[in-house]
Amino acid sequence: MSEEGRMDHDLKRAKRAALWVGLIVPLVLTAIAAALLIAWLPRMPDPAATHWSGGGRPDGFGAPGTNAGISLGIGLGLIAVFQAVPLLERLKMGAPVWTAVHRLFPAFCLATVALIQLVAVITARVQLDLDDAREAPGVGGWMIASGGTALVAGVIGYLAQPRVRIGARETADSTPLPLRETERAVWVGEIRPSAVFLWALIPAILLVSATAVWLFLIGTAVWIPTGVLAVLMIVLAVTTCWFRVRIDASGVEARSLVGWPVFRVPADAVERVTVREIRPFGEFGGWGTRWMPGTGLGIVMGGGDGIVVTRRDGRIFALSIDDAETAAALLTAAADARPREAGSARTRTTVSHSDRPDRLDRVPWGAVVLFVVLSFGLSWLVALPLWLTGPGSASFQMLFGIVAAAAMFTPALATLVVVFATRTPRSDRLRFLGVWPLRPAKRVVWFTVTALFAPLVIGIATTLIAAEFGWVRLDLVGFSGFAEANAAALPEGVDPGILPPPGALIAIQLALFPIAALIPNSILGFGEEIGWRGWLLPALRPLGVWPALILSGAIWGLWHAPLTLLGHNYGLMDWRGVALMTVNCVVWGVLFGWLRLRSGSVWPAVVGHGAMNGTGGMILWFIAAGVEVNAALVTVAGVSGWIVFGVIIAVLAATGQFRREPELAPDRGA
Question: How does residue 593 score in pLDDT terms, banded at 50, 70 and 90?
């Protein structure tokens, strides 16, 4: 079979699978759900429940057939949208293009439709044969199960489709613009959003912003995530949709309307420049600033001709611009005029490395932005059940521990995506992350042991400083506050006299502290540290040690916002809590970062994180009865703790510890 025949066969096979996953199966699910809902109509209460509150009870009602209407209307509407978007591009464009986006779209359609139909069926099922819909039970658990089932369906739908890739039709390389040795030329243009795009984007931003204002005025805390969404939409609009493009002897630069981000391809990194038809959806999954794993970056605000710059490492940089022929000719001339390194046909590195596999020569800003967006987005997504239930609900405290633990693994997930999707770094990944090898073993072990036990000393010093400043009153003899808290925790009617003396309980907790610091605290801490100190800190290391430590710590602190705004850590549900947590994470991050850089391993930081979290309640062991604890002042995450950390950091800086980084042990596998 010829190459063209094989591609045609593969394309037909991929289209057939996409049709089943994105159209036929969703239609069958919609039909089954609608049939069930219609059959149940005689058994539904009138009015029927259509919405459940965060407290678990119905708070919205409508006609008995509402669920059937939602099932059919939204189900068929989603199927139509998911089919129309790629169809419109195929009708508009000529030769076929098939990429991972064409697999993702049908799978996403299947998952979304499955979720809608499951929710419609479940919310109807719990109301069958009820006289009053207000008696319907809560459906929170069913909603989580439905989301998980829909996610599994989407993954199966994606994997069920063949991995077919048909790129855009190749064109001849651009001809260099003829320039004399004494001549210089500059090409300047713009990439602008289309009128249709603006008409869709601006009303959406206004609607979300108005909703946030309305929610604020009626006094519900949901205005915070809604406002964050509005701000995020505005930031994305001004930073990803409108660019000024400049091409000169140094290469090509695309700078957003507000000056950041800036994307550059130096002339000496250009392998070839072509002018061809660009497929925003087929090649990049949509319009705007788009990045696709294994493909590259595109700033594509519309279809039609544009320039495609192929780097010497194989990645592409696509720009949908007018007068593409002139721009390509000038960039080709600039690339031809730049000397290239001998034997550098193509290297396979996105970021140049020094002679150390754990060190980058420059910050991979694209990967850093992706990591931050993913970790923050996943954190908000995981915390969503808490925002829906609200701090005043009965299920909030039960959910909080589960959600907080799950959130700690979102940086790890972001790290996996960034490492494997952007291939930063491309090799020696475990060494770059500080996971392996654990050599020299003596250095790693001693730093880990120090990180395990030092937090105990820090916690005790924090308590004494808080008492010295008069922020708390201690009882170091009878431990009356600790005894009072233990008695209050007993079931009603149980005699507190059955408890061991508080001093004995404290001694037991001190003895068990190393175990608790390792299991489960360090296991949970690994989920964060592999992201913050494992990947992000080394990625920012080219900025310098102190800028990298401070910036990574600030990002870490802001990442806590979904839980901090619910009162976690400081009991403050506004910007003050976020500010305190950000300062705290900068302070903690400097010390954890020092452990990471000084040892060459992420494990001391992991253990230190787990141990430090274990000292959070230590102040409660020593306070006098009846004393209120102000977490912003007296804990290791408050001002008292920052004083102790400040002294430690000052001593380390004065002794040059932040200038010392270990020589890496040789790779035995090399």
Answer: very high
